[in-house]
Design a protein that fits this description.
The complex is a heterodimer. Chain A has helices spanning 2-25, 29-55, 61-94. Chain A is mainly alpha-helical. Chain A has one domain (2-95). In chain A, helix 1 runs antiparallel to helix 2 and helix 2 runs antiparallel to helix 3 (61-94). By secondary structure, chain B is mainly alpha-helical. In chain B, 30% of the residues are buried. Chain B has a three-stranded antiparallel β-sheet, with no helix packed on it. Helix content of chain B is 59%, strand content 4%. In chain B, strand 1 and strand 2 form a beta hairpin. Chain B is built from eleven helices and three strands; from the N terminus they run αααααβββαααααα. Classes of the chains: A mainly alpha, B mainly alpha. Chains A and B meet through helix 3 of A and helix 6 of B.
């Protein structure tokens, strides 16, 4: 079980690292939101799954309940995070920010 | 306000009534407490807010950002700003001067480390039956302090209301209506009598008008869960991090989410201004009323032990329940104030169209 937890945590960290790199490296507002919205959500899924699994070391009704609560975080983050990204992109379009095109300078 | 330094009030289990230590140091400390709890936040709101709300009411530029009107101050505004700045600087200077009186950070010989904190930590469970020491210290041992924090929040809401609210609504030049079936948008311009209610049409804001099914649906879905969790946080403050302030903020945020995803009118339909004001005041009233009830039952102000005869429990559980009642009051006050500040600021006091 420890191996599974470690693998899940490493997967999550890889996604988080990719997301951070994307936020730093992508050229403009809209493309930066892409790693921010997507990779963080997936990294959170892996991380929380690892926590939930680790919590089940001593199996009982109590720990099972705690694990379910941890997984509930994932459910709400899965609902809220893409919607928030959607709203931010919408706001950017409404404020009149045009997307980056190839050959332009990084913003 | 009778909140004194920790190192002077540990005598004989009396919790809230503190005695100032004598001399200039005690005076500085008392000024510090007074400033921190009452004046600073009011000065902040009053001093900085005054200059903004003269000038244009409707100053939205093309990007939907409130921009003009703010910097066109006349002489009166400049004078007020100068006074506000002086008061803020004086307050800040006094606060810094008062910190000289404090024991050094982490000082093992300070009163808080030698006998105040250990006593709270050791006796909290047997005296109040609350495992979370933070809650018992906040709402019971130093309940007087928290009561005035709640009052400060209440007055912040009232100040926001006084400064911003406009009761003579200038009718907007145009209103937008969306036909709900086709999605067509209707503009009604410069008529004296605006249609207040139209079937099949919904009124939309003039500035920020996204019809976003995703955001609306998701926020409607999330709001009950946010509120449920907020109630859990308020009720579970005895055993885990949480309590009235945090839960109240979450409850307020759930209404603000509704107002942001739909519009301000949707949110104010669910909680009107009068109900909001009533809740805002009743939260503080519950707190102070609990204290006054203790007085009537023959104990000190906010000494929840006296509630034992009313609640039909022993004195330890009475303190536990007293904390809970007080936390509910704090939660209600914080929630109503959050909503009130948001409504006033986002609609510039018109309660008509806002973010």
């Amino acid at each position: 079980m420890d191996i599974a937890v470690t693998v899940l945590l490493i997967c999550g960290l890889i996604f988080f690292a990719g997301g951070t790199l994307g936020i730093l490296r992508f050229p403009d507002f809209y493309s930066r939101l892409h790693p921010a919205g997507k990779l963080d959500t997936l990294g959170l899924l892996f991380g929380m799954m690892a926590f939930a699994l680790f919590n089940l070391h001593h199996f009982s009704v109590g720990t099972l309940l705690t694990s379910l609560k941890i997984l509930l975080i994932v459910v709400f983050a899965f609902l809220a995070s893409p919607t928030a990204t959607h709203a931010i992109v919408d706001a950017g379009v409404r404020a009149g920010l045009s997307p980056w095109k190839k050959g332009e300078k990084r913003r | 306000m009778a909140i004194g330094p920790d190192h002077s009030h540990i005598g004989s289990h009396s919790r809230n009534w503190c005695h100032y230590s004598q001399g200039p140091a005690g005076f500085r400390y008392s000024i510090w407490c007074l400033q921190l709890h009452d004046v600073s936040s009011l000065v902040y709101h009053g001093g900085s807010g005054r200059g903004i709300h003269r000038g244009h009411r409707r100053g939205w530029c093309q990007h939907g950002i409130f921009c003009c009107g703010r910097f066109q101050n006349n002489k009166e505004d400049k004078g007020l700003k100068a006074i506000g700045l002086i008061i803020a600087l004086l307050t800040g200077g006094l606060l810094i001067y008062a910190t000289v009186d404090f024991p050094a950070y982490g000082d093992p010989k300070s009163a808080a480390s030698t006998h105040v904190s250990p006593r709270y930590i050791e006796k909290s469970m047997e005296e109040t039956d609350v495992p979370n020491v933070v809650t018992s210290v906040l709402a019971d041992y130093r309940g007087y302090d928290t009561m005035f924090e709640t009052t400060v929040i209440f007055s912040a809401g009232v100040v926001c209301f006084i400064l911003l609210r406009i009761f003579r609504p200038e009718e907007p030049e145009e209103r937008f209506y969306r036909h709900t079936l086709t999605g067509m948008i209707l503009t009604v311009k410069e008529t004296k009598t605006m249609p207040s209610r139209l079937e099949e049409f919904e009124r939309i804001d003039t500035i920020w008008t996204p019809h976003d099914l995703i955001i609306k649906t998701l926020c409607r879905f999330l709001v009950p869960f946010i509120q449920l969790f907020a109630l859990y946080v308020i009720a579970h403050g005895h055993h885990s991090p949480g309590g009235g302030f945090q839960g109240g903020v979450m409850l307020g945020a759930s209404f603000i989410v509704l107002a942001m995803s739909h519009d301000l009118r949707t949110a104010t339909q669910r909680m009107g201004e009068k109900i909001n004001a009533l809740l805002c005041a009743s939260g503080v009233f519950i707190y102070a009323g609990t204290g006054a009830l203790c007085l009537l039952l023959g104990a000190n102000f906010l000494d929840y032990k006296a509630l034992a005869s009313v609640l039909h429990v022993d004195s330890v559980m009475a303190r536990s329940y007293g904390i809970f009642i007080v936390e509910i009051g704090v939660g209600i006050a914080v929630m109503a104030t959050m909503i009130r500040i948001y409504n006033n600021v986002s609609s510039k006091g018109r309660y008509d169209e806002g973010l």
